What does this fold into?
Amino acid sequence: MLASLSIRDIVLIDRLDLAFEAGLSALTGETGAGKSILLGALGLACGERADRAMVRAGAEQGSAIAVFDLPDGHAAFALLDEAGISFEPGEPVILRRVVTADGRSRAHVNDQPASVGLLRALGDVLVEIHGQHDGRGLLDPKSHRGLLDEYAGNDAVLASVAKAWERLSAARKHLDDLRARKAKSAEEEAFLTHALEELDALSPRVGEEAALAAERRFLQQAETALTDLQDAASAFAGSDALSARLGAALRGLERVRSGLGESGDAASAQGTALNALERATGAIERALIEFDEAESALSEAASAFEVEPGALERAEERLFALRALARKHQVEVDALGPLRDELAGRLEAVGDSEGREREAEAALKAAEADYARAAGALSKARSEAGGKLAQSVMAELGPLKLDKARFRVAVTADEARAGPSGWDTVAFEVSTNPGAPFGPLERIASGGELSRFALALKVCLAGQQDGLVMVFDEVDQGVGGAVAAAVGTRLSQLAKSGQALVVTHSPQVAARADHHWKIAKDEAGGAMRTHVTLLTGQTRREEIARMLSGAEITEAARAAADELMAS
It folds into this structure.
């Protein structure tokens, strides 16, 4: 509910702070006293258009602050969260708007800078103003379908339509994608075929790049290595003579050993000679063995570096071909194999596009049929609910002096406007005189009629927009007596579960209010100022009596006021 409204330097109001409560609050006063200024200030705080003419003469800026106490789960909290406005559960929502004398404006929500668009969106879920110049709420045709669905309790049907629409949208996208790919299939098929031919011609293997690179390095060094090995082998030239000399030396040592015998005292000269001969013999034998092994190893190494002519060119050609193909497809060389499998799958898919397109078309037809059934059921539910709502509203029009008017809910199916909420357009239409055509509520009804139509609708839709602060601007315009009493009764009924504010000239309406404010204008400091007074008890009785009798309050008027307040 609206907890308070603070106004600074707006038109005739220099400073005003009002605290509101739940129930029905009546705002009364002479014509021109400034009732519309209060509504204008509330609209300003809720994102309505700012005008520099709203700033009080002589002031640099004007401001309006509206404070709302909201229940858990109110739609305003989702808007705040989406906009990144921080708030604490249980704390009020504060809307503040400042307009300067040069026409600029600033908006804040919970003392945090915000856009006017956010202020307006919050205002739409917080306040509903019904008057001849206001197009919010019930008078906004964009709200009619949602209001009718809430009235009908169409949640389950709406959910079914939303799911059917999701499936339909997915089926359409799938078919569109297939057709788009088909349009490019000839070009894609040529590309895939050529790419596969290149890959199959090379037949790359995982790890092949590393192996080829190593082979290339070996082959690049082979010629130089072979020359060096040949130089090393040339050092063994005349090796036969060297072997013969080593052999002759070995045989000479054997003869010396034979002459000395096989044993002798180790400490004797003979023993020493034998040991030396043994070591010399072993060394020569090992030298002969190592010499032969070295010569053999050199020969083997030279054979290894004797490569087939053209081997380096072949290795480089394949390595460079693999790397070029990898660059072409922007993958690593080792990924060419998996890429080949992927391209083969794509080529197969291109070849089967006709069959898959037929399957997608069949799936789309099935989804269209499902959606049509769901949307048709929703249309039927809306039409039935629209008829019931029209009957309920018509029953309310007579007591509100709109007995010659007719009301209907126009539900029109239009497949071109299909969406997740169905394909219907819903409009609340009225005919104010017999024989007159039906038309949009906001265009056909006059100022006072608009408010009363809105009141009748609100009574019939009670509970469909919980949490809204309802404001009725001169809903009793042009009526009195029993009609005004009927208006008051319905306003009181609406306010029982929420909060309603009514600007009224009718004592019958004011008398039904839970709270009564009087708006007056007087001169202060050489300028006219508007002030607001909360009336209770005797002061409220006097105001209702004034509304009954005019400038001169009579005892009869007071007695009539007592009767109205007691009813």
Q: What stands out?
A: The chain is about 55% helix and 15% strand.
